[in-house]
Amino acid sequence: MRRRDFLVVMGSAAAWPLAAGAQSSNKPVIGFLSARSAKESEHLVDALRKGLAEHGIIEGQNAVLEYRWADSHYERLVGHASDLLDRHPAVLISVGGDMTAKVAAAATHTIPIVAVFIGDPVEGGFVASLSRPGGNIAGVSNVNAVIEAKRIGLLRDVKPGIDTVGALLNPDSITAVTQRRDIEEAARTIGLKVEFLEARNHPELDAAFKSIVEKRIPALLVPADAFFAATRDRLAELAASSRVPAIYSLRESVVAGGLMSYGNDLPDTYRLIGTYAARILKGAKPADLPVLQPTKFEFVLNRKTANALELTIPLNVLSIVDEVIE
């Protein structure tokens, strides 16, 4: 059983002229910019299409979707954004983290943007407020960066007696600074120390896990990041070979063999992004569309991985599991 319950507060719909993205054909173009890769995002794109269809927008029939994927290479985003703007999109979808949102916001101040945010979009300077964004950007905030205390607490529950937790960060991400701060505060609140490890590519990821073994770090937190999402299979393999229990932000990481995840339902986030993009195509103004926030999260556990790590999952943890991957 999976939890999905988003607070959807509908804003007023003022007309946003489609002329903002003057089209060379009768079909409006929806630009799609992602820091992730196409292959590992297929289910998310399906969810996006579902959201569009809920408001009558069907890819290939009455709209054209132009996809650009950075494949976890943040430096590619600027070029991809420029390429998409050359297609004169009526709306630009930005997903895969706040780096994508930053590039999209810098690329245009007039074309409507619908973004998925990892952290607080107000603190990040993307919108004026959650209820009234006030500019050309609307979207969904996953608030993954503000629930680290729950994730760290779950690590301590399945690995009782630990006094330290490791945390991976991608130094190329603009959210790394706030993630470090949030993780430090969360760990301090429950009396744990944090060992931070950085990885922006595969060699650095291997080196990080070598350090985990050498320092005998007993548990690992993997926060939200496009690179970590794209390398979820490798992360699961490294965690298994290092025999370190790890918690992730995405369910997909647990399906790949990771121990557990705690976070929002990402496919439903993409569905909501689709509904917002469709509403904008039909005349809604981004400034009047509140930033949506998840109100419930899903906790997913991989029983096979727990057994392989010889972990006894406490009853108080099992009682709150939303989905068990066998």
**SS-based class:** alpha/beta
Strand content is 15-25%
State the name of the first-level CATH class of the largest domain.
Alpha Beta
Helical segment count: 12
Distance between the termini: 13 Å
Keywords for this entry:
Rossmann fold, 2 domains, seven-stranded mixed β-sheet, 12 helices, elongated, disordered N terminus
What does this structure look like?
The protein is α/β, with parallel strands linked by helices and 326 residues long. The chain folds into two domains: 169 residues, Rossmann fold (3-Layer(aba) Sandwich), CATH 3.40.50; 147 residues, Rossmann fold (3-Layer(aba) Sandwich), CATH 3.40.50. The chain is built from twelve helices and 14 strands. It has a seven-stranded mixed β-sheet with strand order 8-7-9-10-11-13-14, with helices on both faces. Strands 3-2-4-5-6 form a five-stranded parallel β-sheet, sandwiched between helices. The longest helix has 16 residues. It starts with 5 loop residues before the first strand and ends with a strand.
Detail the topology: elements first, then pairings.
Layout: E1 6-7, E2 29-34, H1 42-54, E3 64-69, H2 77-85, E4 91-95, H3 98-107, E5 113-117, E6 137-141, H4 148-158, E7 164-169, H5 176-189, E8 193-198, H6 202-215, E9 220-222, H7 226-230, H8 232-242, E10 246-248, H9 251-255, E11 260-263, H10 266-281, E12 293-294, E13 298-302, H11 303-308, H12 315-318, E14 323-325
